[in-house]
Backbone:
C-alpha cells in the first residue's frame, strides 16, 4: 500500500511546460511531482510506500516532504486530495461470480510508480468485452484468464523493480542509465506506465552505471 496527496497550484515560471519528478531519500520509495497542465496550473503532489511497523504519515508530513523535495511547488495550491493506493502483486483478485474487478478495485496500481491509468483502461476493456461476449458463470473465469494473460508477467517484473528501487544506489543508476540511453528510458517508461518488462538492455545499463560514481553519465 502507498499513500499520496495531490493538489493544483499556479505553475512557477521556471516550470512552464515541464513535468518534474524528484525522488525522496529518507522515506523510500517516495517522490514528489509537479506536472504543468498548460492552463496556468500544475498538478503537484507527493507519495510514498507504506511499511509495516512504520507509522503512516499525516497530511502535514506529506505536505512537508513535498516542500522539501520541490520547494514552493505547492504555494497557493488548492483542491488537495489524498488516497491510499493498493499496489499490484503478481496474483491479484479479479472478482467472483458475476462481479469483475478492474483498476484500483482489483488492487492494480504499479508498485514502482504508483500509476494505475493503464491498468484501469486495459482491464476495463477486458471486462467489458467479457461481459458482452459471455453469459452465465463462465464470465469470471474467462475474464480472469484474459487479465492474467495480459498482466501476470509484467507484474512479476514490476514487483522486482519496486524492490530494487528501495535502494538509492540502484534508483540513481537507473535514472542515469535512462538519461544516457533513450532506449533504456523508453523501456523504463513502459515498465512504469504501461505493460513493459525489465529488458536485457535496461539491466546492462543499470549494471554499467552502478559501477560509476553518481553524477557521471
Residues:
Amino acid at each position: 500500500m502507498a499513500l499520496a496527496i495531490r493538489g493544483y497550484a499556479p505553475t512557477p515560471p521556471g516550470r512552464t511546460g515541464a513535468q518534474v519528478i524528484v525522488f525522496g531519500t529518507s522515506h523510500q520509495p517516495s517522490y514528489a511531482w509537479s506536472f504543468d497542465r498548460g492552463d496556468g496550473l500544475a498538478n503537484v503532489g507527493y507519495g510514498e510506500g507504506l511499511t509495516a511497523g512504520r507509522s503512516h504519515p499525516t497530511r502535514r508530513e506529506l505536505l512537508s516532504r513535498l516542500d522539501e523535495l520541490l520547494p514552493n511547488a505547492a504555494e497557493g495550491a488548492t483542491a488537495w486530495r489524498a488516497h491510499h493506493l493498493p499496489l499490484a502483486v503478481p496474483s491479484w483478485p479479479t472478482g467472483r461470480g458475476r462481479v469483475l474487478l478492474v483498476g484500483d478495485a482489483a488492487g492494480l496500481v504499479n508498485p514502482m510508480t504508483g500509476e494505475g491509468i493503464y491498468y484501469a483502461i486495459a482491464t476495463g476493456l477486458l471486462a467489458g468485452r467479457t461481459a458482452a461476449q459471455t453469459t452465465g458463470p463462465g464470465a469470471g473465469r474467462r475474464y480472469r484468464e484474459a487479465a492474467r494473460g495480459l498482466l501476470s508477467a509484467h507484474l512479476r517484473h514490476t514487483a522486482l523493480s519496486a524492490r530494487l528501487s528501495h535502494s538509492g544506489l540502484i534508483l540513481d543508476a537507473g535514472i542515469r542509465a535512462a538519461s544516457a540511453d533513450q532506449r533504456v528510458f523508453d523501456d523504463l517508461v513502459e515498465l512504469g506506465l504501461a505493460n513493459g518488462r525489465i529488458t536485457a538492455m535496461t539491466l546492462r545499463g543499470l549494471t554499467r552505471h552502478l559501477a560509476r560514481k553518481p553524477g557521471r553519465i
Notes: The two ends are 33 Å apart (CA to CA). Strands lie at 2-10, 19-23, 30-36, 41-49, 78-85, 95-96, 99-100. The chain has a mean pLDDT of 91.
